[in-house]
From TrEMBL:
<protein>
    <submittedName>
        <fullName>Uncharacterized protein</fullName>
    </submittedName>
</protein>
<keyword id="KW-0732">Signal</keyword>
<feature type="signal peptide">
    <location>
        <begin position="1"/>
        <end position="24"/>
    </location>
</feature>
<keyword id="KW-0378">Hydrolase</keyword>
<dbReference type="GO" id="GO:0004540">
    <property type="term" value="F:RNA nuclease activity"/>
</dbReference>
<dbReference type="InterPro" id="IPR016191">
    <property type="entry name" value="Ribonuclease/ribotoxin"/>
</dbReference>
<dbReference type="GO" id="GO:0003723">
    <property type="term" value="F:RNA binding"/>
</dbReference>
<dbReference type="GO" id="GO:0016787">
    <property type="term" value="F:hydrolase activity"/>
</dbReference>
<keyword id="KW-0540">Nuclease</keyword>
Length: 172
């Protein structure tokens, strides 16, 4: 026959075991996040990044005359292959990790409007490339008119291909 002390110990151990199992189920908040309206790449776990095509040559963005204020007008600018690669890889790494930076949540999907003359698939993202050769880290994009554009596909890995660089035109 068991002693009262050993019976109490068994009951406590069984209760602790049951409690641990009960706490393993998802909470309401966790289930809601799966049903959110966030872009799918933001709720996926990080995927390994695979680069299918890097920038191979320098690219030039044409001068733009966006009208007043003069601060929105930009001279022609040529980006080196290394500058393009830095911006492209930063945007791709963030996307593969399901992260974004800045008020406009870069990188984000490019709506293909206007369509670009690049050899690029339907799933495209854009990420700012700065005139001062620094990598965009989420600050104000008011003085950052250019974007790198890349194609992406998701599977067991996050595959990216550099498409090109573009300059935003006048607002509206």
């Amino acid at each position: 026959m068991r002693s009262p002390t050993s019976l109490i110990a068994c009951v406590l151990l069984a209760g602790a075991s049951f409690t641990s199992t009960a706490w393993a189920y998802p909470t309401i908040a966790e289930r809601q996040s799966v049903n959110s309206t966030e872009p799918i790449f933001q709720i996926l776990a990080s995927l390994p990044l695979k680069v299918g095509k890097d920038p191979a040559t320098p690219s030039t963005c044409p001068a733009s005359n966006n009208g007043p204020p003069a601060a929105r007008n930009y001279a022609e600018h040529t980006y080196t292959t290394n500058q393009l690669k830095k911006a492209f890889l930063e945007g791709a790494k963030l996307a593969a990790a399901g992260k974004t930076v800045g008020a406009n949540n870069y990188p984000h999907n490019y709506g293909r409007n206007p369509p670009m003359p690049f050899d690029c698939g339907a799933s495209q993202m854009e990420f700012p490339i700065q005139l001062d050769a620094q990598v965009y880290d989420g600050g104000d994009i008011g003085g950052v008119p250019d974007r790198v554009l890349f194609e992406y596909s998701e599977g067991k890995e996050f595959l990216v291909k550099f498409c090109g660089v573009m300059r935003h035109g006048p607002p509206g």
